[in-house]
Amino acid sequence: MENLTFDLAQTSLRELNQFLHNDAKKGEVDKVTVLNPDGAHNIAVGLDCPVTVEVHGHAGYYAGGMNKTARVVIHGSAGTGVGENMMSGVVHVKGFASNGAGASAHGGLLVIDGDAGLRCGISLKGGDIVVGGSVGSFSAFMAQAGRMVICGDAGDALGDSLYEAVLYVRGNIKSMGADTQIEPMSDADYAAVADLLRQAGIEHNPKEFKRVASKRELYYWNADANQEY
Amino acid sequence: MEAKPIKHLSKEESAGYDRKTLDYIRNAAAHGLYEIRGMGAKRKLPNFDDLVFLGASLSRYALEGYREKCSTKTILGTRFAKKPIELETPITIAGMSFGALSANVKEALGRAATEVGTSTTTGDGGMTPEERLSSKTLVYQCLPSRYGFNPDDVRRADAIEVVIGQGAKPGGGGMLLGQKVSARVAGMRTLPAGVDQRSACRHPDWTGPDDLAIKIQELREMTDWEKPIYVKVGATRTFNDVKLAVHAGADVIVVDGMQGGTAATQTCFIEHIGIPTLAALRQAVDALEDLDMKGKVQLIISGGVRTGPDVAKALAMGADAVAIGQGVMIAMGCNGETYCQGGQHHSAIADYAALGTAPGFCHHCHTGKCPVGITTQDEILEQRLEPMVGAKHLKNYLKTLNMELTTIARACGKQNVHHLEREDLVALTVEAAAMARLPLAGTSWVPGFSGY
Ligand code: SF4
Fold first, then answer.
1. Helix, strand, or coil here: B77?
2. B374 C-alpha to center of ligand 1: Å?
3. Which of A205, B44, B245, B420 has its CA 20 to 30 A from that of B299?
4. For B131, phi and psi rounded to 5 degrees?
5. Under a CB-based contact definition with an 8 Å cutoff, are residues A166 and A182 in contact?
6. B48-434: which CATH architecture?
7. What CA–CA distances, in Å, run from A159 to B81, B97, B270, B422?
8. 3-state secondary structure of B120
9. CA–CA gap between residue A5 and residue A19 (Å, rounded)
């Protein structure tokens, strides 16, 4: 199978994405290498086939956004909204990720080897996120389903207004968001953390993680909840 | 001698503390929560009724009402999209969610819209197969909540509408109370069934107009630049918002005025945040003209567009199309005394009474117990709106509006409804004249702009 190279210093982003949406889908190419991304936005968005895209350099906003089945690897850092609304497949950032990483992801796996900025995993809807470093404030805000493994620390208001997503944190949590609590880890939780770390290729002892989940006290209107909504 | 007792002829209700205000205070005291309701602003606002057309006479000549052609064709999304939306009429169906509405209603909307050649729009909570199948032209909303947002549906849609806000609640997120979060609705939104859903008011992956430009580019790249991208804003600082949306790269801008409806929102939002449609429309058109973008970026106005004359006035003021939500629901039986099921009319009055209301006064969409089966997820109630019956009434309504629109256009001497112009309109009240920046009828006075 072929490995095709797109040099974004020579070729437009439009050509790259058009190729990934059409030709790559025909199955003739299983790996696409992207050179000189130079922080371009919207690299490899909306993929819908099991192709591998290796980006050598830094990506701008929404790299690998809305991904289905593809594997997008960024050998550099990624801008806002990396892997946003992904449905399946893998997006792997070898460097750092900016704000809103994995926002609203419905499925698939997002791996960030370094730190992630604000609102990592905001509005998460079933995807899995593994962050090798720390996450910024308001991460997992209103996260509805899916799992986040945070190997470093978490900023302020972690998991604010969380629904059914579950967060595993190894380091310190600066502050908990409304309606979240730390819960005991079960065997299933240890197994889940071990599995996600293995998939992400990051080594830690699952025993070092704590579980954060929703208290489920804000699911219904309640006048006595002192407007914590 | 004792004074003769006086028999008072009148009782004086306080203007400030009238019965409505007493109800409000008592309700707050009893519940400790703000009131939530459906539909749009109920207060009296300057609106399209405060404008009239000048029509043709000696200085302009009219077209023959029944014989001469008057085109209503409307094309949206000509700026960047490879496949603009082509409609037979400038009257479109506003975004309303499955969840707020039943699946039957979504199907009826699609059927009627397809028959008259217009578009329907999804809402918070994603696209249902029913509406995709029944709608020839379907606009897919990308909302802050991203409930059910799916790249396959992006690819299946005919246009994408990035929703920044809604006229009923600019600055607020969606809301769906637990009674309407049925198993199917919850599944589509990835929520536990029965929760009182309150959505985010900001998009999760962008903030501000510069980010929006990149988000729009993502949607374009994602769809290979084929589909028009709409941006919808609730009417507030409309002049600036429309300019920013143009700069961000929108093909079409939807401005929703404060009369726009909702399935569930805090009353304080509905009545107190946002500006009237009339004022917003003028600001939006000014912004497009300022940027020399009139006709390049299309404008859809919504919020209290009810009648053919409303549509004609909106077009004359500079809109390219209108979107209708509440009118569409009323056409299908909302606030009616009866519903039609199994070929028979049945009274719904007792069901309105159970909600503490009556036909003509209902705004109880948030309860999920719609007496005529429109805004409900209840298995029994939803059967009260049969898709074929709803579609027929809606088709009649849309056709009537279209006939009125062409009648007015011909009377103004126009062969194309899009040729209606501001010069064809005057205002009946000083307020409307000031907001729409049109002369008061019979004068050349535009308050705030021309000689006084
Ligand atoms: S009749 Fe139904 S749709 Fe109309 S206001 Fe009442 S609850 Fe809402």
1. coil
2. 7
3. B44
4. -75, -35
5. no
6. Alpha-Beta Barrel (3.20)
7. 39, 27, 30, 52
8. strand
9. 11
For helices B387-411 and B103-116, the axis angle rounded to 10 degrees is: 40
Burial B142-166 (b: 16+ CB within 10 A, else e): bbbbbbbbbbebbbebbbbbbbbbb
- Give the DSSP H or E segment for A33: strand A29-35
**B299: Cα within 13 Å, side-chain hemisphere:** 32
Distance B26 CA to ligand 1 centre (A): 24
Q: Domain-by-domain residue ranges, chain B? A: 48-434
What own/partner pairs with CB < 8 Å and gap ≥ 24 does A77-82 have? Answer: A77/A114, A78/A112, A79/A39, A79/A41, A80/A117, A80/B205, A80/B206, A80/B211, A80/B214, A81/B205, A81/B206, A82/A110, A82/A112
Q: Is the dihedral of CA B136, B142, B146, B150 positive or negative?
A: positive
- Helix or strand (DSSP H, E) at B231: strand B229-234
Question: Letter for the amino acid at B43?
Answer: R
Q: What is the pLDDT of residues B90-137, one digit of tens each?
A: 999 999 999 899 999 999 999 999 999 999 999 998 999 989 999 999
Residue B10: Cβ-neighbour burial (10 angstroms; 0-12, 13-18, 19+): exposed
- A204 CA to centre of ligand 1 in angstroms: 56
Closest CA to B256 of B296, B186, B289, B305: B305
Q: How far apart are CA A180 and CA B74, in angstroms?
A: 50
Amino acid at A117: G
- Closest Cα to atom 6, ligand 1: which residue? B362
Are the C-beta atoms of residues B286 and B265 closer than 8 Å to each other?
Answer: no
Backbone angles phi and psi of B340, in degrees to 5: -110, 110
CATH fit for domain A99-217, picks 3.10.25.10, 3.40.50.12160, 2.160.20.60, 2.60.120.230: 2.160.20.60
ipTM greater than 0.90: yes
DSSP H or E run through B302: strand B298-302
Question: What distance in Å separates the CA atoms of residue B105 and residue A209, rounded to the nearest whole number?
Answer: 48
B197 in helix, strand or coil? strand
Contact: A223, B31; criterion CB under 8 Å: yes
Nearest to B198 among A80, A87, A229 (CB): A229
**Interfacial B residues in 217-246 facing A (CB < 8 Å):** 217-218, 221-225
Whole-model pTM: value is: 0.96
Q: Is B365 near ligand 1, meaning CB less than 6 Å away? A: yes
- CA A190 – CA A168 distance, rounded (Å): 10
Taking the CA atoms of residue A89, residue A95, residue A97 and residue A103 in that order, the dihedral angle to the nearest 10 degrees is: 10
Residues 6+ positions from B25 with CB-CB distance below 8 Å:
none
Query: Distance between CA atoms of A151 and A78, rounded to whole angstroms?
Result: 19
Query: What pLDDT score was predicted for residue B450?
Result: 74
**For residue A227, is pLDDT > 60?**
no
Q: What is the pLDDT of residues B222-260, one digit of tens each?
A: 999 999 999 999 999 999 999 999 999 999 999 999 999
User: Which residues in chain A are closer than 8 Å to B178, comparing Cβ atoms?
Assistant: 220
| Separation of alpha carbons B226 and B248, rounded Å | 17
Residues in chain B: 452
Q: Choose which residue among B106, B326, B374, B384 to substitute to test ligand 1 binding: the one with the highest number of ligand atoms within 8 A of its C-beta.
A: B374
Q: Taking the CB of residue A52, how many other CB atoms lie within 10 A of it?
A: 17
